[in-house]
Write a structure and sequence with these properties.
Blueprint: H1 2-18, H2 30-34, E1 43-46, E2 49-53, E3 58-61, E4 64-66, E5 71-75, E6 79-82, H3 88-96, H4 120-134, E7 138-139, H5 143-150, H6 167-177, E8 208-220, E9 226-239, E10 244-247, E11 267-268, E12 272-273, H7 278-293
Helix pairs in contact: 1-6
């Protein structure tokens, strides 16, 4: 059974390496030629609430594989998250400013298409650049925040564990993830996958989104609490149709970093906007305006 599972994983990696890759000539966009952001990105405010959530990571109990425990997460203030993923045109402005790394291969650069083929480091660099440009703090969402914003689009990835045959869990994961339709891999214009109940667009489409959450190996005690954690921030959580763990420098998960399960089709991102007080926000904007005049 374990041999059959390894063959399936190998087949998934081969499919990722030789499957269709969305490559198109670079297309100039009016916004990318202007060299400046005309306005801050559209942001959705999600009201405080509660999330029943299974943490990301690998869990063991008494030396055996264990299912991730369910947690109740309370959001006590509004979550402000971009309605759309960061567009390729906006990302290109960061490239032109010398603050972001350029795309490896041809990508359609337009305001209505998501930036893809970006690593976690690329996404983090863009967040820093946008924060400096706007005077407002932007950052990648945590895995919990992404799940809360996704609402009904977030799927619990818990799987039963057979202590006598842990490989069954990984086979089940692969079979569940491979059920998705991956025939259309080209990044689509915004709106292709619709809005969720919060008004956030294109969640769990064919673009997986980077989060700030690190991969964790956690040992659980008998009550299901974490007794010891080993955190690996060289691997980050990406969220989409299913949760994925991707090395932070990978830009195309189909061509590298393949692990058990089906790799993400495209890697992109959207950001959370940190809310500040009215006075602090006004001060930041005034400082930005004065800097632009000098």
């Amino acid at each position: 059974m374990l041999i059959a599972f390894k063959l399936k994983v190998a087949a998934a990696c081969v499919a990722g390496l030789f499957g269709p890759i969305a490559v198109a000539p670079l297309v100039s966009d009016v916004a990318s030629r202007s060299g400046a952001i005309s306005s801050e990105p559209a942001v959705v405010a999600i009201e405080p609430g509660r999330l029943v959530y299974r943490p990301a990571g690998d869990f063991t109990r008494a030396g055996r594989q264990a299912e991730a425990p369910l947690r109740n997460v309370q959001f006590k203030k509004q979550l402000h998250i971009m309605r759309h993923q960061v567009s390729s045109a906006d990302y290109q402005l960061c490239v032109q400013d010398g603050a972001c790394r350029d795309f490896d291969r041809g990508v359609v650069i337009a305001l209505d298409r998501p930036a893809v083929q970006v690593s976690w480091h690329d996404a983090n660099a863009y967040a820093g650049w946008l924060s400096r440009k706007t005077g407002v703090h932007y950052r990648l969402p945590s895995d919990e925040e992404w799940a809360y914003a996704a609402g009904s689009r977030f799927k619990d990835d818990g799987l039963p564990v057979d202590a006598n045959d842990p490989a069954k869990r990984w086979i089940s994961r692969y079979e569940r993830e491979s059920d998705r339709d991956i025939s259309d891999t080209a990044p689509s214009p915004f709106g292709r996958f619709g809005l969720n109940e919060h008004g956030v667009a294109d969640l769990a489409g064919n673009v997986w989104e980077w989060t700030s959450t690190c991969f964790v190996r956690s040992q659980l005690d008998e009550r299901g609490d974490s007794a010891r954690d080993r955190i690996n921030c060289g691997v980050r959580v990406a969220q989409g149709v299913h949760r994925a763990y991707i090395t932070d420098f990978i830009r195309d998960a189909r061509a590298g970093g393949c692990a058990a399960g089906v790799p993400p089709t495209n890697l992109g991102f959207r950001l959370v906007r940190e809310e500040t007080s009215w006075v602090a926000g006004a001060t930041q904007r005034l400082s930005k305006a004065l800097s632009a005049r000098s």
